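note to self: dont lose this again. the chain is below, predicted strucutre after it. 651 aa total, dont forget to put it in the shared folder this time
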Amino acid sequence: MGAARNFVRSRLAVSALITAVVFAVIAGARSIGWLEALELSTYDWLLRSRPRVEMDDTSVVLIKLREEEIQKYGHPLCDARMAVALAKLQDLDAIAIGVDIYRDIPIPSCSGQLGNPQLPGENTDLAEVTLRDGRVVMIAKPLENPPIAPPSFLEGIGQVAVPDFNVDKDGIIRRGLITYHSHENVPYFSLSLQLALRYLQAQEIYPTNDPDQPELIRIGDMTVPMFQSNDGGYHDADAGGYHYLLDFALGQGAFPSYTLEDLYSGSIPEGAVRGRIVLLGTESTTVKDRFTTPLSAGRSEDPMMLGMEIHAHAANQLIRFASGEARAITSWSQRAEFAWTLAWCLLGGAFGYWSRSGWLTAISGLLGVGVLIGACHVAMGRSIWIPLVPPLFATGVAAALVTSYRAIRERAERSEVTGLFSKFLRPEVAKAIWDQRDQFIGPDDRPRAQSIVLTSLMSDLQGYTTASESMDPASLMNWINEYMVVMANLVGDYDGVVDDYAGDGIKANFGFPIPSATEDAIGKDANNAVNCALAMGAAMDRLNTDWQSRDLPTGRVRIGIFTGPAVVGILGGRKSMKYTTVGDTVNTAARLESFAKDEFSAQEKRNNWRILIGDTTLQYLGGAYHTEDLGSHALKGKHETTRIHRLTGTA
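---
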């Protein structure tokens, strides 16, 4: 129980526990996928924030079959018209031609389509044109149910590709496909890979297997990493096949495009297609071939991207891999990602623990968020996806909870400290104690015991005993309270602290509870105590005059003052504790107050007050007061004699 109580009362231990719990919750939430949507949205934002890649030659050209051309030529195009389109692209020296339109059903007749169905002078044999030199790649979906087959003349020919994209749970395409295998382990290659390899073959760049990881493809000097189901912010994503993260580095609308009508009419500029990949696909509201990508959120108009444009991005990225112009987007291991999150969580907890200023908290918090976002942005610029959402939540929640805990704890401690000192301290002194609480409050949350140098003042009202015998209780309390209020206020006026009341006596300290650290400060405390004593004597004169006018008993005040070391600390239990001073200095001041109290001189009896001080106090007064040396005397309870001086006024 004791250890548990000490743990609960340790601010550092509880703050560390809060930080650990926050990390465990954030890590757990990430592990079960609760943060996936936010992480993927943040990934999209980071990807959009990357500088766009500017290329003089994008390596890919788009040929679009628009709605008006569909109305004119039909959809799908008949075999003859498709053959003419492909032949024209071959004649324009396209290095590879991808047909992003299914041709699973032959359409031998162009009847019913506008324009000349006979196409005189053109090669209208689709099989012959397609098989001419292997530049044409058509699409199929062999694993669909039912499957979508390629044209029959391409069966078993390496001119068939799959156009698949992995669409994430939120409907966004972020990944490109290299290949996937059937249940019979038959490989199917993506359209973008087929086109990119034909482009690179012309540059004598061929794919190989990575020597260390043979299951991975190496293009040029770049090994294309295989996406895993928990990479980055993903949680149990569909990782079937060989996928990689698309960078969309050229941005939306980056690829030059022409219409099918431009192709048929010969309006495409000379050299616009030569040596490039050409993708032929649809751009029509009646043919659903538009998708959401990470770039979509950054566009107010037409946020969707054509399927053939996504293929173009994928092919271009593979080509940039081979040329060394791009690096694959990778992520850290899960262990490294958790360590990164833990580091930010600890930072947030430490910040919440140490921060004191509200403005500093806000500014530092914003600065920390900026550093985190900046680090993630820079990393993404280097094609490294590091977590942003988990560390952002971890540092923010840890800082907020630790700050809240500290505020609640400090409020309780302030209440405790205030309760301990409020009876005796002026508000500004209490505030100073709170501001320096680490100096006053120990690890057990009790005020520390410490040795300080102070000036102790003890006073006693002579005449109280006689008055108590002749006055009724209510009148006696009113009479003594008048005296106590005046004297206690004077102690505060001279920067002293009333430590205790005992019947008609007052115990006051100067240089307490905030200790004086220099000789000048200790001297100021001594002078304050002496000036306070003189003011108390003058107040006694005024009180007696007032009491006499009301037929009340009069009194005389005896005051003892001594300067020296004392011990300050807590006396009593938690329910009755008191922060007070003890030691020889306090005892000596009390003995000076009571010294020869029944043997006043004739002059003293004519006065309403007497002030006795010790040598240690006199040495700080600097001759500014009239004093009378009464010699050395043995005070009660002290083995050595004490030199006593009577203070009579200012010089």
